[in-house]
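queue> pop job 88
queue> type: inverse folding (structure -> sequence)
queue> payload:
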């Protein structure tokens, strides 16, 4: 029945997120991430998918403002889809609208707090805003969801320095 679909999807999302958090190799993590992304886009309408494709084309043509507009149109159709909020946040980031990107990521993470990609993007946006502490906190959350994002902890170490300064 349709009513059970969201809870079944949420359960599968949680299971895959748990598998991602315990992935042993980068390759395993990528395979699980692909499954998660497929699940996250499963209920997008054909029109929404078309708008996402158009946004990607706009971005490739170096028209990030047009991409933001396309994803805004997609969000008008399906505002409950966290992946669309993440997508628009990415486009806003590329367009230089850091506060808009943070706002969209807040919406994405409210709908899907297990999305390591959204947390990673939030870390990048906060770093660009020169908020080292916020960038570190978001990266730590991303790493808790997907430890294979930074298996050697290079980015983690860089963000710690930005947040707290060089250790003495």
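queue> result:
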């Amino acid at each position: 029945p349709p009513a059970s679909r969201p809870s079944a999807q949420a359960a599968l999302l949680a299971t895959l997120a748990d598998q991602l958090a315990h992935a042993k190799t980068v390759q395993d993590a990528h395979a699980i991430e692909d499954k998660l992304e497929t699940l996250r886009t499963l209920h997008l309408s054909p029109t929404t998918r078309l708008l996402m494709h158009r946004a990607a084309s706009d971005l490739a043509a170096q028209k990030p403002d047009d991409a933001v507009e396309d994803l805004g149109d997609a969000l008008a159709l399906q505002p409950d889809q966290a992946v669309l909020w993440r997508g628009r946040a990415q486009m806003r980031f590329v367009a230089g609208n850091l506060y808009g990107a943070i706002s969209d990521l807040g919406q994405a993470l409210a709908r899907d707090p297990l999305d390591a990609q959204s947390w990673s993007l939030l870390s990048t946006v906060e770093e660009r805003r020169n908020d080292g502490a916020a960038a570190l906190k978001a990266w730590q959350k991303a790493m808790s969801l997907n430890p294979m994002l930074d298996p050697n902890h290079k980015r983690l170490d860089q963000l710690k320095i930005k947040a707290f300064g060089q250790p003495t």
